[in-house]
């Protein structure tokens, strides 16, 4: 009889462990509503239905929090939403997702471009008002925007990437007509079999400066709302997404079984449009759920946003970096995100994040790649190759406008020798602006200062490499040092030279799981 009682007690103990302990163990190592590593071979349809419905993710997350608040014991140290025990508030610890899953990757190619600032020819007669816009700009070749785009589109179709990613500022200033016309041009790419993924930039939504240019007049015209942006660009990422952020135009897109694109809306446009950017708390929580799901399955996630994750420019320092960049970076690096793509700066930059100066290359840190504006010479875009071993190769390419013009029977000399025309155009615009800021110097000295600045700026936009010590020996720099030091313009000269000391057009990025982690 005693043996039977002991056996019954043992069975009850095992049953209790199954009922109470096992669910806690599962919850400690899996995120509600997403797949675990053991499920990574499920078909894409199953993943879409069971894992990436934003409503399901949010509902289950809220119910989990409620159940954890009612629980008398913590879920586990460092796990999001863990409770307290014994009335003692534990110290907050960062959630540790554990060791990453090693998995062979499917080879993937992605083209990145940014800041197209598309302008329909129907919104201008290229007269005085338009010319003033160009002269006050940063070198964007708006007068040949449509030709640059068509040459670029033809190259994309020829290269046949797995995706074309456009990281914001799709239009000049958010004009409704520009959005409609640009979306039609993207439709031609889609019809050619190219997957196109877009997100908004700070120019694109609720922009009070949406404008047309005719004669001497600038006229304010209709912009688009966030809802209208989503509707216009539905076929270019949104309609095919597997998950959406609860309070922004961010979404998750599955390129293939081992590569996902995390398209992040970093813009502020409600209630009014702002230049700067941030990622809201709710979107950040959604972002982490996406990263957790991928991490447990050994899937590579590549995020892209309009605003920058790091301070990448000594020249352009205001309203460029995501305002809560430190929090965003912490979440991305927690799951060993390899790289982040952005735009906004209108210069080509590449920078690896290091927690402290002098951190060795063998230590993990997220890489950021900033694409120059597609319509600022030399009209660049980026080509990324995701390799089988989880490493990446990146390089920039220049749009061959001249080759496109010749192939299509163009007779315009500017287009047939676009490289020479566009470089001269950029130098002229920047030289004029620089010359106006130099007061009280002889004309010949002002000319030389402006020439030096314009050449340096052209190189800066293109991400060209600079030998700082050799550059300081040039006559132009010596004149800047002699006549303009100190001044804001001289600080910009120094900034462009120092930023150019690193490689900004090419990168080999290793798989983060093989690097040291602090």
Please tell me about this protein's structure:
Helices cover 40% and strands 14% of the residues. The model is unreliable at 12-90 (pLDDT under 50). The protein is an alpha/beta fold and 518 residues long. Helix 14 (443-462) runs parallel beside helix 17. The protein has helices at 2-29, 44-51, 54-70, 128-135, 145-159, 176-191, 226-232, 234-238, 281-297, 325-334, 401-407, 413-416, 418-436, 443-462, 468-471, 475-483, 488-499, and strands at residues 108-113, 163-167, 196-199, 211-214, 217-220, 243-244, 251-256, 259-264, 300-305, 339-342, 349-352, 367-370, 380-386, 392-398, 506-509. Helix 9 (281-297) links the parallel strand 8 (259-264) and strand 9 (300-305). It has a 6-stranded mixed beta sheet. It folds into 2 domains: 108-404 and 504-514, Metallo-dependent phosphatases (Purple Acid Phosphatase, chain A, domain 2, 4-Layer Sandwich), CATH 3.60.21.10; 417-499. The chain contains 17 helices and 15 strands.
CATH architecture of the largest domain: 4-Layer Sandwich
CATH homologous superfamily heading of the largest domain: Metallo-dependent phosphatases
Described by strand count, sense and barrel closure, the largest sheet is:
6 strands, mixed
Helix tally? 17
According to CATH, the fold-level topology of the largest domain is Purple Acid Phosphatase, chain A, domain 2
Report the sheet-strand fraction.
5-15%
N- and C-termini, Cα separation: 58 Å
What's the CATH class label of the largest domain?
Answer: Alpha Beta
**Low-confidence runs:** 12-90
What is the alpha-carbon Rg in Å? Answer: 26 Å
